[in-house]
User: Fold this.
Amino acid sequence: MQLKKKSIKGMTLALLMLMAAMAGCIGTEDETTDEGEEAKPAFLDASDAGYTYASDVDNHRSLMQDLCDIKSAASDSNWDEAKNIYTNGKNAEKSDGSFRTLAGFAAASGKNHNYDTFYGQDGAIGAHIMAAMDGTGDFEGASDTVRYQGIAKLTANMGMVGYTIHELNAAVAKADAGNTDNDSGAPHNWDEGWAFFHGPDEHWSCSPAYTMKKRAADYGTETNGVSNALAASEQAMVDGLAALQAGDKAGYDAATETVIKNIIITYSQATLKYTMKMDSNESAAKYQAEGYAFWKTMEAYAAPHTDGCYNIQVHKVFMMGDIDASTCDAFMWTQHQGQGDFMCYNTVTHQVSTDVSNETECDGYSNATFMDMYGADKINEILNLKDASKHGTSYDIAPHLERVWAHYGITAEDIGTYQ
Assistant:
């Protein structure tokens, strides 16, 4: 009996040791699995600024870090590294191991924005950015300072604003088609729009939203230290998401228009600022490059509204907005309802020319003197990076943008005054 007890005890001990060993192995496997799972970065929380995401756009939000890294590389004139991050990506790794890249969007065709149509080429945003990266095109022969400004400003502004507009328009198209599912429908694209426009709070200094912050400070268009344009855009994004989820077309269309309007406000301020500062003896080329990048961000949405009519009597161009040549024939010398002072009135746009003072001068307008996108052409002359003769002069481009602002319902108070 004693031998039997010892045998049982021995077997029990062996069994316990085996179970312990197995438990240890299982425990080791669990620990290895836990260690292999990457923790989600703290900055990828549920919201950025006042906008709470309805879907998972963590990968899209991570792209903002690429913008910061591109800027850092370019600041050291490390064009190869800046281009590598732009084309191959660095921070926005997808589940399959590939990376989301800004170049993947900027160089693509068929995107939901106006840039390709306006510039007459597929991947127009990418073409502008690559010119700065490679020192070609508009940046051929440019200094390191000018190339840096082009790379830093075009990627963060033209690139990301274009990406934002694409996503907002994609959201509207899906909502119009009835797809309002948070994860696969319109709200998801809308979320992506905010991810590209603002991005993580920790990296937003590289975003278009931060440009709104800085330009509002420049022009005194803040309320309690917060950019009016940014506050309006953020609220429009919040309201637009709710409208998309509810299938409220009027609501999400209005939200989209509000975002575009405030983009025009901000990049008007930016272009105004840097063309004005081009009288600098030391930094004119730098300011010209900054103005160029900010202007290119808005040009596709502004230039069509800068048509003018040239008057052969007074030799001035009267800014008209988006018109055709026949509108320049529609001026007449008349009174308001047959009373009061005579004026040179356009029967199509209902504008009164302030450039003429009598009937002969009013007759100086005709379709033969139509000036297509005259205002945009004048701005492009000032911001021609190859024309150093433009340096040393301060320019006021506000007259070229007045009809743009009228089209978008932008007031003088919205633009503000340079502080």
Q: What stands out?
A: Residues 110 and 122 are 8 Å apart (CA to CA). The longest strand covers residues 339-346. The mean pLDDT is 92. Strands lie at 47-48, 51-52, 222-223, 226-227, 307-311, 316-321, 331-336, 339-346, 370-371.
